[in-house]
Amino acid sequence: MNTKQRHTTSDMQDTAIMVALAAAFTAVFIIGVTILFPSDASAARLKDIASFSGVRTNQLVGYGLVVGLAGTGDGSSSTFTLRSMSNMLEKMGVETNAENLKPKNVAAVMVTAKFPVSSKPGSQLDITVSSLGDAKSLLGGVLLVTPLKGLDGRVYAVAQGSMTIGGFSVSGEAATAQKNIPTVGRIPNGAVVERGVPFKFNNQTQMTVNLTIRDFGTTMQVVNKINAAMGGEFASATDISTVELELPDRFKGNMVPLMASLENIDISPDGKAKVIVDEKTGTVVLGQDVRLTKVAVAHGNLQIVVSESQNVSQPGPFSDGETVITPETDLAIEEQNNPLMLMEGATLQELVDGLNAIGAAPRDLISIIRALKAAGSLHAEVEVI
User: Fold this and answer.
1) Does residue 161 have a pLDDT over 60?
2) Is there a single domain that holds both residue 295 and residue 168?
3) Is the separation of the CB atoms in 111 and 62 below 8 Å?
């Protein structure tokens, strides 16, 4: 074996050793993350409370026509549907007059889709089709070829196909029956990607982690656990919900193994104590950190019922008297006489037990919670939605 062959063999062996060491390091890193941060029943995975730079979706939208409807399409008043039909037929070599077209079997629609940045030409997307005119139902319709564009005006996908509708609408002369919304449908894998986003995930030199929970304690917990897992000061917090991650040289150009390990780190999210009140439905939701200092509460319903009636007095026959109508009002007042209840909630269960002891309905709880907040006894943020 000559010198050149020996050098070639040595280089191949060195390369194989480096590949084996990289694979071993990645395996050790993943095992280390699992050992350092065992699963906690009350914890959430990092990928469930955060998003990563370079991993996002883009919105696509397009205008198209749905054909094949059973007389439930747009009416003649939808002039844009008539013009669209006329333009489509003329492109196919059919001369038409828009005024003579009947669009009852055709509907103008808007087509929307979510376009992941990782989608490549040839991959498929689910699309949503929504009526734009006055169509009654899209049941049984077929979407014709529709280009889907991004905010830059470029076509990224093309949609076409038969729709699935989750509802129906039937009507007669004197009655109508409808289930769900029949003017919106979906086409699974109904669009084909024609152009990809010019972005390479592995070309990033640093990673940004955006947390969905705006809390300094949670953000620092993420920073500390990432640094402990990676064995260095690679992560730092830039604000209340953003973490910047400098990539080690060994993971540059090969970020997928690193992200697969980091996204499974268990985090115990924290945040401000909140009480959510939905007055439209009478729903009250209390967070686990809501606290209540000692306070006495009395709550009683006051019901006032007013009923009006008329007392009619008629004169005798063949008399010169007049009919007298006297209005009468019946007033009934009912008020509950509930005693004062001492409430104190160091835990969520104690707070719930105290509110239940009053015997208030959900809508009564809204008034009680507001009064407790005004009295300074409820230590939580009250948010009305």
Assistant:
1) yes
2) no
3) yes
Tell whether 221 and 292 lie within a shared domain: no
Element (H, E) at 34: helix 3-36
249, 267, 285 - which closes a domain: 267
CA distance 93 to 385: 55
Instruction: Write the CB contacts of 98 (distance below 8 Å, at least 6 apart in sequence).
Output: 82, 83, 85, 86
Count of structural domains, the chain = 3
Q: pTM of the predicted model, to two decimals?
A: 0.67
Chain position carrying tokens 């209840």? 341
**Does the pLDDT value for residue 282 go beyond 80?**
no
Give residue 149's pLDDT.
Answer: 96
Non-local CB neighbours of 199 within 8 Å, separated by 6+ positions: 54, 117
Tokens of 343: 């409430």
Cβ neighbours around 138 below 10 Å, total: 26
Contact 291, 346 (CB under 8 A): yes
Residue 283: the pLDDT is 81
Q: What is the DSSP letter of 103?
A: G
Strand-pair category, 381-384 with 274-278: parallel
- Are 167 and 181 in contact by the 8 Å Cβ rule? The answer is yes
Clarify whether residues 176 and 77 are in a common domain.
yes
- Tokens encoding 38: 């065992």
Asked if residue 244 and residue 187 are part of one domain, the reply reads no
| Cβ atoms of residues 98 and 68 within 8 Å | no
Range of the domain at 367: 274-384
Sign of CA dihedral 74, 80, 84, 87: positive
Residue 126 sits in the same domain as residue 184: yes
Q: Does 113 lie in the same domain as 75?
A: yes
Residue 3's pLDDT band, with cuts at 50, 70 and 90, is very low
SS3 call for 179: strand
Q: Are residues 172 and 62 in the same domain?
A: yes
Among 232, 267, 302, where does a domain finish?
A: 267
